[in-house]
């Protein structure tokens, strides 16, 4: 934490105090039909931080990302991105959806998936130029997938597809990356590759928010946590907020106390 604060010139907590928020939601309520998925959620994600969104299945974690992106309608509340309305800052956001939610049965080459991330630079119906391809390839290189550029996305393993989604997000050159369970169902090598890329994004002063399900890696991967279970339970630095009490409040009886103690020793 201290080392990172030095690299950034000043710490994440100080940036939050200085009011520099990559994402700020307040009073956020989202209802599908009758049932509320999120109720009155307020959260502040400081610019340059790496935040884990934690909570049980059905807690509204994916919904929170989708509401931040404006892809599900809010019943009430506000979303601000870098201090402005979402519509003005949309170009600074990149999103990696939960892999299980994407159907890649239609034939698309890996390089084209990455180029799709660059549509703003490309413009609709304009020709793809060599430098576009070179940038897309460089992004694939960063996730160690350049050799697969001409393969059909549907033929890749789950972990390889996840790397390609990350390459597409990298191609967007965003400032705020929202990822929904990027490590779900990937092998250890892919997990390492993904976390290395995310940490390098943070070293470039970009902001990373991940829905994350593996509690054991939270202290190692992230510097902040946001606990939600329909309502916000807690948010803050790992040191102050990744506590047995907050885990218990978020998961209730579902998490054994011994398990929580083991996690705490990792902090
Ligand atoms: P999480 O990502 O934390 O597992 P979600 O945000 O996906 O939770 O879902 C929160 C709740 O909203 C769940 O009860 C889920 O069944 C419901 N839900 C999510 N998406 C929809 C949808 N498109 N239509 C109806 N209900 C939904
Ligand atoms: Mg989800």
UniProtKB/TrEMBL annotation:
One of its GO terms (molecular function) is ATP hydrolysis activity. Keywords: ATP-binding, Ion transport, Nucleotide-binding, Transport, Zinc, Zinc transport. CDD domains: ABC_Metallic_Cations (cd03235). It comes from the Bacteria. Residues 23-255 form the ABC transporter domain. The keyword ATP-binding applies. SUPFAM superfamilies: P-loop containing nucleoside triphosphate hydrolases. Belongs to the ABC transporter superfamily. This is Manganese ABC transporter ATP-binding protein. It comes from Nitratireductor aestuarii. The lineage of its organism: Bacteria, Pseudomonadati, Pseudomonadota, Alphaproteobacteria, Hyphomicrobiales.
